[in-house]
Design brief:
- The complex is a heterodimer of chains A (401) and B (310).
- Chain A has 401 residues and is mainly alpha-helical.
- Chain A has 18 helices and no strands.
- The longest helix of chain B has 31 residues.
- By secondary structure, chain B is mainly alpha-helical.
- In chain B, helix 2 packs parallel to helix 4, helix 3 crosses helix 10 and helix 11 packs across helix 12.
- Chain B has a single domain, classed as ABC transporter involved in vitamin B12 uptake, BtuC (Orthogonal Bundle).
- The chains are: A mainly alpha (401), B mainly alpha (310).
- At the A-B interface, helix 5, helix 6, helix 9, helix 10 and helix 11 of A face helix 2, helix 3, helix 4, helix 5 and helix 11 of B.
Chain lengths: 401, 310
């Protein structure tokens, strides 16, 4: 059943919703990457909450004009207009007054949302249960979606994705170095608004699927997930797009087979699962990789210090050091070195002396900069250079009383 | 309007609205200055999974377990935000967005999956609250305020919100100096021996307490709006913290009273039959106050603010 849903075998509408959600997921992942890099991820929260009054007003206007009030494109148009006003309010509050951006975001999202709720209650009193569909914008609902609505979502997702692809170069430039971008002749403020407009497009299109409270997750979680896997922007946008698309695809499929599973929350939770996996398993930045790297480093430090202690005949008190030496066959349990251990210890001490000479000599400045107490000197200097240093240190001499 | 109508139907909701608004606005001042304004937003989102979990564990809709559940969820959220931020090296805003959306989604899912059809527990209720329904049926008029048997019939939410407000006020009063110091200059406060980290966590916990108590009565919209709008408007009125707090309390009170009146009575003046959402209207009024302050507040500009922005 799940396989059917994932492979789009569940009828025309479910297929359209799934494809639309996946397109939207890709678009939101890519757009969200630029929001994230611009450190304005939470602005999307204000945008999404600010859609509610627009939905309500559009509905009221349509009913007053004698219509049914449920035309999705008009509702979405209203949502887009009021979220644009909300975005302008955030910008005004954070740029023209002393309030910081997070306060502006919070103020706009709560006030617009509150006003939206007022409008919803107004609508409830207007007629006989005609507003029943509007609550679905809060949490999203794909069950019983009309063909035309699904089509609007699919086309909207595709168009947003196209816009992102066209604008990706200037957006990358802006995300990393706004001043350089301005010097290059890019209109920074307009470009910022363009990023926001894309976020807004994603939000508005996603209203019906994910709902306005959770749509912000589609803009935030995939970029955060992608950040674990790469340090390059172009890769990050790709990975965020794939993560967002996959989460939306799987989430929409899951909720298509089980009507009790609301689409929005499922997509968010799948997205979070991808994030959690990345947090644990990503190479280089994942927790597992960091832990392993730390362990390896710790072992090398203990091994080196243990060998130096053996060479100088000092007792080893640290249990961990002794365990490592024993496991490597370099020492016995009582701390007495084996033959190999003696040889390795002598080598370690000799290397330490060589490094000491290297670090005192200006001629070896660049090599000395690599000293960290762990590096084998052979990986830094040639055999000739080492021979020269050994010559300076001198060999063992007989001690005469 | 006569007392016989006003006292039972409007006095208690209005009072609860005012008390919750002040309880949220007080810590909101500090959160605003510490650039943690959105913590209130995050907390009010995660309250939902908290109360749903509490309901699933206890099987009853009772105030105490739900408040404990909500407070627990708030703590989980704060810990999770910090964990994501530190472990993943993620910027705070994104960590917050990730956390509260995930927890909220979990809450909605739990709610949809569990059998809560028989109880009054749904997402809409969590968002709007039910301020209008917190009426005082035992009252007959102003005289009931002195009538002990009628006072017993006060809605329990009133007592809880009052306790939360007192708790918040006492916390601020007790830790005023270190809190102010660490808000304005954390390093200096640490040098002076103030436990800044503990204070920061305590402030968030106290905010969570206020949020949960208010949430129980009025829903999460008011909570978010009251954490941010009155303090933000007050910040545009003055440069002194004491005055800012006084302004924010005044604004919170004004929003609650005016919002409630507009929601309850204004539609009737315009010939509508039904009232609109009081919670939404209170948030709207607080936004209008903020807008007014942003246009003509005496301290609305940053000192030495540059007009160029990227």
């Amino acid at each position: 059943m799940l396989l059917d849903a994932l492979t789009l075998q569940l009828g025309y509408n479910a297929t359209l919703v799934t494809v639309g959600a996946a397109l939207l997921g890709v678009a939101s992942g890519v757009t969200g990457t630029f929001l994230y890099l611009r450190k304005r991820a939470l602005v999307s929260d204000a945008i999404s909450h600010a859609t509610l009054p627009g939905v309500g007003l559009a509905f009221i206007v349509m009913v007053l004009l004698g219509g049914d009030g449920r035309s999705l494109p008009v509702l979405l148009l209203g949502a887009a207009m009021s979220s644009w006003v909300g975005l302008l309010c955030v910008n005004l509050l954070s740029q023209r007054t002393r309030l910081s951006e997070d306060a502006a975001i919070g103020a706009v999202l709560s006030v617009f949302f509150g006003f939206g709720i007022v409008l919803l209650t107004v609508i409830q009193t207007m007629g006989s249960g005609r507003a029943a569909g509007l609550e679905s914008f809060l949490l999203g609902a794909t069950a019983g979606m009309l063909f035309n609505d699904a089509m609007v979502i699919a086309i909207g997702g595709a168009l947003t994705l196209l816009a992102v692809v066209i604008l990706r170069r200037p957006m990358t430039l802006l995300a990393f170095d706004p001043e350089y971008a301005a010097a290059r002749g890019l209109n920074v403020q307009r470009m910022d608004l363009a990023i926001m407009a894309l976020a807004m497009a994603v939000t508005v299109i996603g209203l019906k699927i994910v709902g306005l409270i959770l749509i912000v997750a589609m803009l935030i979680i995939p970029p955060v997930t992608a950040r674990f896997w790469t340090d390059r922007t172009d890769h990050m946008t790709l990975i965020a797009g794939v993560a967002g698309g996959a989460a939306a695809w799987i989430g929409a499929s899951l909720s298509a087979i089980a009507p009790a599973l609301p689409t929005g929350p499922i997509i968010v939770l799948v997205s979070f699962a991808l994030f959690a996996l990345s947090l644990l398993l990503a190479p280089n930045r994942g927790l597992l990789a960091v832990g392993l790297r730390h362990n390896r480093f710790q072992r090398r430090v203990h091994l080196r210090q243990g060998l130096l202690a053996l060479a100088q005949g000092q007792p080893i008190y640290e249990a961990y050091t002794l365990r490592i030496l024993r496991r490597a066959g370099l020492a016995h349990a009582d701390g007495v070195p084996t033959d190999t251990g003696r040889a390795r210890a002598a080598k370690a001490l000799l290397d330490e002396k060589r490094w000491e000479t290297v670090r005192q000599d200006q001629a070896f400045e660049s090599a000395a900069a690599l000293y960290d107490g762990l590096r084998d000197i052979e990986t830094v200097l040639t055999a000739d250079q080492i021979a020269e240093i050994d010559h300076r240190i001198g060999g063992p001499k007989e001690v005469t009383p | 309007m006569s007392g016989a109508e006003f006292v039972p139907l409007s006095l208690t909701p209005m009072l609860i609205g005012v008390l919750s608004a002040i309880a949220c606005a007080l810590p909101g001042n500090f959160l605003l200055l510490r650039k943690q304004a959105l913590i209130g937003d995050a907390i009010s989102h995660v309250v939902l999974p908290g109360i749903v979990t509490a309901f699933l564990l206890t099987g009853v809709v009772a105030a105490l377990p739900m408040m404990i559940g909500a407070a627990g969820a708030a703590v989980v959220a704060v810990v999770m935000i910090e964990a994501v931020r530190r472990l993943g090296n993620i910027e705070p805003g994104a960590a917050m967005g990730l956390t509260f959306t995930t927890l909220f989604a979990g809450g909605v899912l739990l709610l949809e999956q569990s059998d809560t059809s028989g109880v009054h527990l749904d997402v809409e209720h969590a968002l709007y609250g039910n301020l209008e329904s917190l009426i005082w049926l035992d009252a007959t008029g102003w005289g009931s305020l002195l009538d002990a048997s009628a006072l017993l019939g006060l809605p329990p939410e009133l007592g809880r919100v009052a306790i939360a407000l007192i708790g918040v006020a006492v916390f601020l009063w007790l830790f005023w100096r270190p809190l102010v110091l660490s808000t304005f200059d954390e390093n200096f406060a640490r040098t002076m021996g103030a436990p800044t980290t503990v204070l920061g966590i305590a402030l968030v916990l106290v905010s969570a307490l206020a949020a949960v108590a208010a949430f129980d009565a009025v829903g999460s919209i008011i909570v978010i709006a009251m954490f941010i709008c009155p303090p933000a408007a007050a910040r545009l009125m003055t440069n002194r913290l004491e005055h800012q707090i006084a302004w924010s309390v005044a604004f919170a009170t004004l929003s609650a009273v005016l919002g409630y009146v507009l929601a309850g009575y204004a539609p009737l003046w315009f010939g509508f039959e039904y009232a609109v959402s009081a919670a939404g209207m209170i948030a709207t009024v607080s936004g209008l106050i903020l807008a007014a302050a942003a246009f003509c507040g005496p301290c609305r500009l940053r000192s030495g603010a540059s007009t160029v922005s990227f």
